[in-house]
Amino acid sequence: MASKITIFFVLALVVVCTMMVCIPTATAELVLPCKTTYDCVNLPCLGRPPLCINGQCKCTTTLTHQAKLDNLRTMNDAKTCKYTSDCDPRMRYSCVSGSYICLNGFCTCT
Questions:
Q1: Which of these, 14, 49, 66, 76, is most buried using a 10 Å CB contact count?
Q2: Hey, what's the signal peptide range on this chain?
C-alpha cells in the first residue's frame, strides 16, 4: 500500500514540474518564393499590399503615392490653424500616417 502512495506522489510531482516548465513557442512565417509581385497575390497580408522582395513575398506597410495624396486632402470641416500646435492632437488617430501639420491655414494629414 505504501508503494502505491509513493508512486502516486512521484507521479504528481512529475506532473507539477512538467506544468511549471515553459516550453518556447516558435512563430511561423509564411514564406512564398516569387519572381514578380504578381506571384504574391495569394499571400494573406490583412489589407497591406504584398511585394516580391529578394525572391520572397513580403507584406508591406508603405503607402502608395495615391494613398498619400488622398490622405493630404483637407476635409470640408478641417480646423483652421496658424501653427501645428493649434490642431487637435486627436487628429492623429484619423490620419492614415498618424501625423498632421498646419498647411495653408488648415490642419492636414501628412
A1: 49
A2: 1-28
